[in-house]
Amino acid sequence: xxxxxxxxCAASLLALPVQAHVTLEKPExxxxxxxxxxxxxxxxxxxxxxxxxxxxEIPEALALVRPMPKAGWQLSxxxxxxxxxxxxHGKEITSGVKKITWSGGxxxxxxxxxxxxxxxxxxxxxxxxYLPVVQTCEKGxxxxxxxxxxxxxxxxxxxxxxxxxAQKQSTxxxxxxxxxxxxxxxxxxxxxxxxxxxxSAPDRLLSGATDIANRIEVHEMAMDNGVMKMRAxxxxxxxxxxxxxELKPGGYHLMLMGLKQPLKEGASxxxxxxxxxxxxxxxxxxxxxxxxxxxxxxxxxxxxxxHHH
Length: 309
Ligand SMILES: [Cu+2]
Prior knowledge:
Blueprint: H1 3-14, E1 23-24, E2 28-30, E3 34-41, E4 51-57, E5 62-67, E6 74-88, E7 91-107, E8 113-121, E9 127-130, E10 133-137, E11 141-144, E12 160-164, E13 172-180, E14 188-197, E15 203-210, E16 213-224, E17 227-232, E18 237-239, E19 244-247, E20 253-259, E21 268-275, E22 279-288, H2 298-308
Parallel strand pairs: 2-12, 13-22
Antiparallel strand pairs: 1-3, 3-8, 4-7, 4-10, 5-8, 6-7, 9-12, 10-11, 13-14, 14-19, 14-20, 15-18, 15-21, 16-17, 16-20, 21-22
Copper (II) ion binds at residues 219, 230, 253, 255.
């Protein structure tokens, strides 16, 4: 290979900025969360013409958008009604920014610049979201609007934002999870806890599971012909929004059916509770003494006494 060709290869490697599409500095986001979009401009138009205007279209999945002004540039914003309103700070917002244009500035071909906005991804946003950009130069323009199809490369791809689903926050608060020691040979055990439905819809505790028993049922104690009896709640235990329910000895409780090993005071074991809406919630049961009535307050006192005497 001649010296000339080598030089030409090196030059083409150095010419990489031609490949610098308009991209987002942070191409990943999470549904329901705020997002700061930094659009990066890497070069001018064909022939090295300087950029004088930069506009971006905002998809509906990106709501509550506010552009950042740039010194030396005029900012103009087009608003449009949302097809679906979004609530912010307790208010229904029915329209928002559809297009942002920065114009009247100048970015030379060999320079780099950024165009910035903030917004919030809707809860239901998912997958790739495209933000078409038009870069206008003194001579010509680049339309960064192509949406790539599988296996195809495009000359001027639109900046893409990949949106991940939000981690679902549990709407069921589970506290003070405990159990009672069992005598050797017992084939059932009990579990107790306090539940609070922090969601806005009713939910039901359906059942549970643990490695140390065949299954966990939801039971209640109730008077039947003057006799206290327990029965399985086949429809589960319903909690209204905001409601707290304590599962405790003599009332609602979890029943560990087919206990595989005795429960020893001071030990703990894990399991999951199954809720109709909140789904599977992992829990750890702390095993208290056989006579324990609750993990704090009176029960603790009782236990402490039993140790002292
Ligand atoms: Cu029971």
